[in-house]
Amino acid sequence: MELILSVKHQKTTAFILGALASLGFAPFFVVPLVFICFVSIWLIADTINSYKKAALLGYVYGVGFFSAGFYWIGNALLIDVARFGFLYPITLLALGAFFGLFMILPFVFWHYFVRKNICFKIGAFAIVFVLMEYLRSFLLTGFPWNMLGTVLAFDARFIQLASVGGTYLLSLIVLILAGSIYACAKGFLKSGLFVFCVVSAFVVAFGFYRISTYQAQPSNIKIRVVQPSIKQSMKWDENELEKNLDTYIKMSQTKGLNNVQFVVWSETASAFDPRKSHYIQNKIKQAVPKNGYLVTGLIRYDDEMQKAYNSVSVINDQGNTVAFYDKYHLVPFGEYLPFSQFLPEWMSPIARVLSDLSSGEKLKNIDLNGVFKFGVLICYEIIFPDEVVNRNDKPMFLFVLSNDAWYGQSSGPYQHLVSAQMRAVEEGITIIRGAGNGVSALIDPMGRVVSSLELNQKGVFDVELAQNSTVETIYSKIKSVYIQGLLLVFLFVLFLL
Predict the structure, then answer these.
(1) What pLDDT is attached to residue 6?
(2) CB-based contacts of 132, cutoff 8 Å, min separation 6
(3) DSSP-based three-state secondary structure for 424
(4) Which residues in the chain are classed under CATH 3.60.110.10?
(5) Tens of pLDDT along 110-159?
(6) Beta-carbon neighbour count of residue 481 at 10 Å?
């Protein structure tokens, strides 16, 4: 502790601590390091004598935290190094510089309560931190990636409280646990240990209890997930497009298609829309089970509206498209370029290579003859709490199609999988995730990965959907805004006390 308090280069230390804290996220899950880093930065914050310095300390800590946590995003630029490689360091700095702003207010509130009751400053920091996570979920289209509570996802039993208060509640719990260790470091050993043990025991006990109440009941719905692990550099190569489609088809036929109801491919798995070509239609139907369906991602072009969509098509055994879902929450700077009309001329080459896609209908269910009713999401749509299923018309299960090949062998695909696990627990729904290069998985309503294929593994797996593929949760009956409102009330009470 004395070593921390005597640190001369506080900003450098703050950056390093923030970066190290990101190792608490998937796939590393070094959770003790998260506690150490937060406790250390709080001890340094105790020595700060002004709001300006507290804000700067928090900002630098945030820059390190988000730069390291989001490093994998820059990997997408390395697919075409010649044209976009120079943007890699700029992207890392820009991500950290922007998202670091969300760490300022928690440290400002820490400074406000620094001379008051230790519980007040821990509570205020935790509340404001979670409020900033909520703000991050929708501000400028939102990017709630790596919410702090996801560090507990190394074991499904530790994330079950998300069914009550969402990942926001888990983030609050992580900070309370870190705060109890901080209390021990400040000399409140007994009370700190008591809080840590009680909160930890409650999290574990609730997790064991909730999981024990769910027993999957078998059904006759069989789903086949295909993961061909095609490199992103080959995915849109004109010489490889039909070969890639043939790979999907051959892998789909593995072990025959008897008793399979759904074959699932990934986001933009097909470069061809079967509605536009009888040749492609005849090819694709080879991958469709008799009386079953193929669920595949592709770019859908609406001739009448003259708009293109990142879409999921549901194709029957005749090769006909019977339903589709168009992505609603598009990726800025990936699927569209915000404010492109205001960009300087020198950026026009970059603007031209980015997709110009349109947005579809939000929370659309697909109902197939009244037998199957499911939801569909594409790629990073799964990271947004409260925006994954129609809660007024809950589907039987949820398909999530993604393409994480852009990010190579990095943390990104594993963290993406964790987001799906969190949404499964929050909404109490089974998620079938088809990712071209992984991680493809079946996730049950408890957030457990029942079957999966590892990152960059080529393969196919069959799973049987449970009859009880959905369960009721408290969180699915409320809105996050109510949780944030309650936190604001608690924060206001802290000011009054």
Answers:
(1) 55
(2) 102, 103, 105, 106
(3) helix
(4) 221-470
(5) 999 999 999 999 999 999 999 999 999 999 999 999 999 999 999 999 99
(6) 10
Q: Which residue has the tokens 């008051």?
A: 116
pLDDT reading at 50 higher than 60: yes
* The CATH number fitting domain 221-470, selected from 3.60.110.10, 3.40.50.10610, 3.30.70.20, 3.90.1150.10: 3.60.110.10
Radius of gyration from C-alpha coordinates of the chain? 24
Exposure string (b/e) for 25-50, b if CB count within 10 Å is 16 or more? bbbebbbebbbbbbbbbbbbbbebee
Query: How many whole angstroms separate alpha carbon 144 and alpha carbon 134?
Result: 8
Residue 403 has pLDDT above 70, yes or no: yes
Q: What is the longest distance spanned by two Cα atoms in the chain?
A: 75
pLDDT in tens, 344-361: 554 444 444 456 899 999
- Residue 225 to residues 222, 419, 435, 436, 459, Cα–Cα distance (Å): 10, 19, 9, 10, 9
Q: Report pLDDT for 341.
A: 53
Residue 259 CA to residue 220 CA, distance in Å, equals: 8
d(CA 88, CA 53): 30
Structure tokens, 382: 């799964």
The answer to whether the beta carbons of residues 183 and 138 sit under 8 Å apart is no
Question: What are 442's strand-pairing partners?
Answer: 432, 451
- C-beta atoms surrounding 256 within 10 Å: 8
Share of the chain above pLDDT 90, in %: 84
- For 69, the token pair is 């946590």
pLDDT in tens, 75-99: 988 877 778 888 888 888 899 999 9
